[in-house]
Amino acid sequence: MSKLPGKTETIENVESSTFDPSKAVEQVRAAAEQSVEQSKEVLSKLSSGAETTQKALESTLEMAKTTSNEVSLQAIAALRANADAYFTHLEALATVKSLSEFVELQTAFLRKQMEKSVEQAKDFQAVTMKAAEDVSKPIKDAFEKALKERKAA
Q1: In this structure, how many other beta carbons lie within 10 angstroms of the beta carbon of residue 138?
Q2: Which residues constitute the domain of residue 88?
Q3: Is residue 43 within 8 Å of 35, Cβ to Cβ?
Q4: What is the DSSP string of 132-147?
């Protein structure tokens, strides 16, 4: 503060600084508005990501239910076929008239059952592999989409 010659220092004649409070208020307001907008954008992205994840999980759970039913039906069909084969074999054994006929029937049955077991194992493996792929697909797709969006951002 400089004194003017011959004047006494009063509030009216004191030099004011270059600080303009209205400009400071505007700068604070602009920064706050920008911060609010950025927060809204982040919240929107988080919300969108959460919805995408929820949809992927729902789809995964539904697919898991469907594929587990398919696997169960496949296992039941194999068990039923094996049980039918055993009962048919027991009926055939009940009519056996000689030891050689018994050995022949038993050998043929065991060979046929081994072949059937290998075939059933291959079928079961194919069904479970498909089930695993189907169950993991929604999550895999959501993850790939998130990676693409992240790279694009």
Answers
A1: 19
A2: 53-152
A3: no
A4: HHHHHHHHHHHHHHHH
